[in-house]
Amino acid sequence: MVNSINKWMIISVILLLIVIGLGAIHLVGTSEPVVKKKQLPVKDPQSPIELAQEIKKLAEKGHVYGIPPISIGTPKQKVIEKLGPSEGNLYKAKNVLFRYDSKNRICSITYEHRYGDDYIMIPKRYKKVLMADIKQVLGEPTYTEGNMYVEHYYQLNNYYVTFTTGGLEDQSGLLALRVSSKECESFGKGL
């Protein structure tokens, strides 16, 4: 009797192992292979025209490249919460200068060539953009002033965009970029 119990026990264990093995084969054979989803890279605009279109798209919403979620109308307290304290209105780490309106909200965001003794550079991605590229995307400026450093003014929706170049030629590169509200920009007062 012990011998027959041992046989049944051995047969039961073997059958159990076969069932487990078949179950494992079934799971492995029918399950989807585990593949890590590759995140597609965000297309970074490369051509000067694409970059000019990017500037336009952001400016139409009161934004500039590199400092989301801050835009025209953002309260100064929120700017401090997001970027930390500034040196006056200058954020050297972001190479950007903010002007505030009487309600302490951003009314102008500038990537400026020079601010006092500090140089603030436009983002490197915009260094290859020429005024000709801006004109191809935005058309002729509403207003232009200056000789050595020329400011080209555009109105986009409720905002003004000013591009500063090193001369009147269309082949001049950008030195500064400013997006402003109507309340903050003296140029817009007469329009």
Structure report:
By secondary structure, the chain is α+β, with helices and mostly antiparallel strands. It has one domain. It contains 4 helices and 7 strands. It has helices at residues 2-30, 48-59, 76-83, 131-138; strands spanning 90-91, 96-100, 106-111, 143-145, 150-156, 159-165, 174-181. It has a 7-stranded antiparallel sheet, with no helix packed on it. α2 (48-59) crosses α4 (131-138). The longest helix has 29 residues, at 2-30. Mean pLDDT is 78; it is low at 30-42. InterPro entries: DUF4309. This is DUF4309 domain-containing protein. It comes from Thermoflavimicrobium dichotomicum.
Name the helicity range.
25-40%
Biggest sheet features: 7 strands, antiparallel
Which geometry do the CA atoms define? elongated
Task: List SSEs in N-to-C order.
Answer: HHHEEEHEEEE
Q: Indicate the proportion of strand residues.
A: 15-25%
Strand arrangement across the biggest beta sheet:
1-2-3-7-6-5-4
Note the quaternary state here.
single chain
Low-confidence stretches: 30-42
How many strand units? Answer: 7
InterPro entries: DUF4309
Protein name: DUF4309 domain-containing protein
Pfam family, one: DUF4309
Short note summarizing the structure:
By secondary structure, the chain is an alpha+beta fold. It is built from 4 helices and 7 strands, in the order H-H-H-E-E-E-H-E-E-E-E. Helix 2 packs across helix 4 (131-138).
